[in-house]
Amino acid sequence: MKVRILLLAAMGALLCPPLQAQQFPYKNRSLPTEKRVSDLLGRMTVEEKVGQLSKLLGWEMYTKDGKQITISNKLRKAAKEQHIGLLWATLRADPWTQKTLLNGLSPVEAARATNAIQRYMVDSTRLGIPLLLSEEAPHGHMAIGATVFPTAIGQASTWNPQLIQDMASTIAKETYAVGGKNGYGPVLDLARDPRWSRTEETYGEDPYLIGQMGTAMIRGFQGEKLGQRDKIIGTLKHFVAYAAPDGGHNGESVSFGERSLRQYFLPPFERAVKSGAGSVMTAYNSIDGIPCSANPWLLKDVLRKDWGFTGFVVSDLLSISGLNGGHATAATGEDAASQSIHAGLDVDLSGTGYGANLLKAVQQGLVESAVLDTAVARVLRMKFNLGLFDQPYVDEKLVAQKVATPQNKMIARQVARESIVLLKNDQQLLPLSKSLNRIAVIGPNADNAYNQLGDYTAPQADGKIQTLLMGIRSAVGKSTKIDYVKGCAIRDTSNSDIAGAVAAAKEADAVILVLGGSSARDFKTSYQATGAANVDPNTVSDMESGEGFDRVSLDMMGDQIKLMQAIQATGKPVVLVTIMGRPLNLNWAAEHVPAIVNAWYPGQEGGLAIADVLFGDYNPAGRLPISVPRSVGQLPVHYNHTKPKHHDYVEMSASPLYPFGYGLSYSSFEYSNLQISLNESAHDFTCTVSFDVANTGKLAGDEVAQLYVVDEVSSVVTPVMQLKRFERRNITAGKKENYVFQLTKEDLKLWNAGNEWKTEKGRFKLLVGASSNDIRLKGETVLTKDY
Known about the structure:
There is one protein chain. This protein is of the alpha/beta class. The protein folds into three domains: 2-401, Glycoside hydrolase, family 3, N-terminal domain (TIM Barrel, Alpha-Beta Barrel); 420-626, Glycoside hydrolase family 3 C-terminal domain (Rossmann fold); 669-783, Immunoglobulin-like (Sandwich). 29% of the residues lie in helices and 20% in strands. The strands form seven sheets. An eight-stranded parallel sheet has the order 11-8-7-6-5-4-1-12. Strands 13-18-17-16-14-15 form a six-stranded mixed sheet, with helices on both faces. Helix 18 (498-507) packs parallel to helix 19. The radius of gyration is 28 Å and the shape is globular. The protein starts with a helix and ends with a strand. It is an enzyme of class 3 (hydrolase). Residues 703-772 form the Fibronectin type III-like domain.
């Protein structure tokens, strides 16, 4: 009997491992997160810890063979040799990744792929640690089949944070449905030079507006608590001052002191961090000679000590390697890894900046065990809080109920509608009548699906994207004849047909001319290792904006100006619609074209939304989040420059062509009854500003009321004016609405000469109006003490 028992025990030991992973305390979902983190961390080898900080390119980790989706050998190798902890852009498809509608993944296939990847990591690795899958999601999940919203510059033009929160919630639901738990976005870069290629990805030039939009995105992405169903964590980009590089060169150095950083560039990040953002991405650039990916002042002192950030910091792609590359502040890869992790950078996007380099740095004594453990714990903590250990898989049957639904399309159309900015409308040419006999639709962006989507967009199925030509056809009656002539390309001048466009215009009752720019990538363009596009003079695509396409001029490219001048010369009523990723030169149009509508990149429903505006089904109320310059010679031309006021140039005014906050409506609004009250207490104050806005037009419409502040006398130089509050509200024709804003010491503080925050006593002008240069009401308040 004893021999038999021993034999059975031996057989059992062969059939079952000594201790199953699910029996470990870190697998026990009833334990507090910190105990689970501590337990798991104590069981990991140095190699496994280093691997948890590596985020590899995810689209290489699956294989598609017909309808069969399996993991790739590259995943097996990475899991075995690198012990990886995260993947980036697993579901991304675009010319850079070489993923198309044929070899990429549909939404259901995407869920199948991420489930297969997670199943392998949980079942086939020593500790069964699931991966955190990060996805690009700034204006929709960058995956085949997902809903495409307007790019960030258009989102900001809505001046409607609640709508952007709803949009972000939709993006989160679509991303979560297919296995993503981390969305890259929002981009909180403060854009002051539109020559920079990524202006379209920003919320514009004002820190307060950016902060409101960024906070809305984080709330929409993350919900009330980490780990909720249909919610993901956001990654704030790019920390910091990335959007104001010298000369507009993407990723290059910036020239700002600490006061400018604290007063203007850091506040949007602070707002989003304090709203709970789970992750922050470092920027490629250096500040005052210190690369952002190796800057302990930024990542430790400001981000964690001052703001209390508890998430993890991730590099931009290959930015750690940039320390011993382009920046040349590290002699070796090990040195670069040591600099970054000691500065507080936790995760390497690429797997090559840390990985073997970090392991060597630990073995050589360049990185202490405690420093490594701190970074790993931050990643593990996030995985536990997101519920990845308890539920690493998604329900493939629910994908169709969450991705690209009719409701999601409706939100995309509403964001596009509210983002449209009416720049000019002489003699009320707009809205156009739906009963016109003949309309000519002309221009390179009138019927080009990809030109209205912006950068960071996946391939799209035929018919999914509603172009403006399609929108116009759906808006007018069957009796109206629509003539479409492309006329020219965005850049290529070899196949222009200006004569054909003029002929169509001459036959029309009205002309809708659709010009602008493009961030549409193609398979002829070459790309850098970071994913940025290379500018190649031998490859002439439409692309003139988007990552890597910095410009020296803001003029419309190709034959577009020639086309516009030829169409205007016909004498027909012309409406110019601009679809673009950055402010372009509109001087000639502003002088000669009677109506101008700016739509930025309006997303998949953009054509319908623009048509809604053109034919009066929607009353436009978008406002510019960035100034439109008259010339690159004015740059920077942001409204909130520091004192003194600008004086004019010899050639032209110093003011922008169209200022920050500007936008017209089919209605008219009158402001009145400004009331200001101040209640000071020992440690703070409340300044209440109220006023009335009446709709004096014939149509109901939204009005975006804006409150600006001027600090009349301050211990350090302050801006000529600063946006502090705004609200978009619909007002019925003939009705009046009362707006109420409240300011506290946080709104009027400055970073003083002693390097501390202070709200100083004295007089403050309070300016209320419809834009930064359309002030309707003026008042003041006087603080009697410092705060």
